[in-house]
Amino acid sequence: MPKNADKSQLRLYYRQKRNIFTGTKKAKADSSIARKIIDLPIFQKSTTIGVYVSIPEEVDTHGLLIYGFNTDKTIAVPKILPRPIMTFFKIGSFDDLKTHPFGILEPNEGLAEVPINQIELVVVPGIAFDRKGYRLGYGGGYTDWLFSQSSAYKIGIAYSFQVVEKLPRKTYDRPVDLVITEKELIECIK
């Protein structure tokens, strides 16, 4: 990690590292992370799960979503509203998604909204995480807003090279409860 870097410099650095992590190594890491999530007792007992729909350079959540579609769990995915608000909608398959102008997949119109207070577990991406659960996101404030509204158990997923000892943070930054990489589960002490 660059010494004394600010958040924008760190975003650039870790996005570049993440963007060159491809192919078989990425696929194996994605599979390992998904398996670790599915094996968690909190995942097994949760009935309503919020999960982002990954873009190619992020940890792939498609396998996790498919697993959820084939269970009796309610899978809720976010939809971006005017900054910094997001809401969640229940999906039952990838057919329930459309491409948002930011290039992300989001729920189609007409799906059932899932109130944030009903989500028991939420899985979020990050450009980097530190060992206390603080995340470096994309800078829009959406996840911090979500965390301020939700009591759900929060899981951040990333590749091992995206985890650092400490990230710069502001008073409004909210940590996750657990960071999962292909190599480890990091319980974040509050």
Task: Describe the protein's architecture and organization.
With 190 residues, this protein is an alpha/beta fold. The protein has helices at 7-19, 23-39, 41-45, 62-69, 142-149, and strands at residues 48-51, 74-80, 86-91, 97-99, 105-107, 113-114, 121-124, 128-130, 135-136, 153-157, 163-164, 178-180, 185-187. The model has no long low-confidence stretch (mean pLDDT 92). The protein has an eight-stranded mixed beta sheet, sandwiched between helices. It has a three-stranded mixed beta sheet with strand order 9-8-11. Strand 8 (128-130) and strand 9 form a beta hairpin. It has five helices and 13 strands. It has a single domain (7-187), classed as Rossmann fold (3-Layer(aba) Sandwich).
Give the beta-strand count: 13
- Structural Rg: 16 Å
| Low-pLDDT windows of residues | none
H-E order? HHHEHEEEEEEEEHEEEE
Percent range for helical residues?
A: 25-40%
Average the pLDDT over all residues and give the rounded result: 92
Overall body shape: globular
- Cα distance spanning the termini: 24 Å
Put simply, the count of helices is 5
Strand order of the largest sheet: 6-3-2-1-7-10-12-13
Q: Could you name the CATH homologous superfamily?
A: NagB/RpiA/CoA transferase-like
The CATH topology name reads Rossmann fold
Tell me which CATH architecture applies here.
3-Layer(aba) Sandwich
Tally of distinct domains: 1
What share of residues are in beta strands? 15-25%
CATH class: Alpha Beta
Biggest sheet record: 8 strands, mixed
